[in-house]
Amino acid sequence: MSVSGHSGLFKFVSQGRNGIIVESYTDKKRMFVSASQKVSSLNDIAIFTDGDEVPLKDVLKSIHEMEPGTPAPDPKSSPDVLKKFMEKVLPTYDRNRVYISDIKKLASWYNSMLELKILDFTEEPAVEPSVDAHTDAETTPPAKEEPAKKPTSKSKNPAVKKPAATKKVK
């Protein structure tokens, strides 16, 4: 996760009353992030291109495939160096909507993730549905039973009595 106003990357720890609790990957310190602060999951971020948007994970994978284990350029590099880097990584990126500050964040995030060894590009295998008719019945979960309804005071059931009203005595 990325938290506006704070540098570095964070992981979600817990839900708080009016926000969330996150932990910094770098110093392992936890902090409360209020609901009014902007928090972005890296899975929700995409880079603008001339066509469709490209998910951040795909861009990070492209950086990793260029030279595995090699960090991206320093985010403090000149704008020309950062633009050339972005052109190598994603040649179709939208030059009008992707700013130098965005490329700096991308390089910073990639370098942080590389250093922390949290880059994972393995795809989970898709689970194929069973074809065997005998196993379908075994894998289908049983139907849920509806809980018994409690009779209400308006019920015509004579076994249910309405509680008597009580008065406080002074």
Key descriptive features of the protein:
three-stranded antiparallel β-sheet; 4 helices; Arc Repressor Mutant, subunit A; single chain; 170 residues; alpha+beta
What does this structure look like?
The structure is a single chain. The protein has 170 residues and is an alpha+beta fold. Among the domains are: 2-40; 45-116, Arc Repressor Mutant, subunit A (Orthogonal Bundle), CATH 1.10.10.1650. Helices cover 27% and strands 15% of the residues. The protein has helices spanning 56-66, 79-89, 100-116, 133-139, and strands at residues 2-3, 10-15, 19-24, 30-34, 39-40, 46-47, 54-55. The longest helix has 17 residues, at 100-116.
Short characterization:
The protein has 170 residues and is an alpha+beta fold.
Order of strands in the sheet with most strands? 2-3-4
Give the SSE string. Answer: EEEEEEEHHHH
CATH class of the domain at 45-116: Mainly Alpha
Task: Indicate the mean pLDDT.
Answer: 80
Major β-sheet profile: 3 strands, antiparallel
Tally of DSSP helical segments: 4
CATH architecture label name of the domain at 45-116: Orthogonal Bundle
The total count of strands amounts to 7
Which spans of ≥5 residues are poorly predicted at pLDDT below 50?
129-144, 153-163
- Structural class of the secondary structure composition? alpha+beta
Q: What is the helix content?
A: 25-40%
**Cα end-to-end separation:** 60 Å
**Overall shape:** globular
**If you compute it from the alpha carbons, what radius of gyration comes out, rounded to the nearest whole angstrom?**
27 Å
- Please name the CATH topology of the domain at 45-116: Arc Repressor Mutant, subunit A
* Content of β-strand: 5-15%
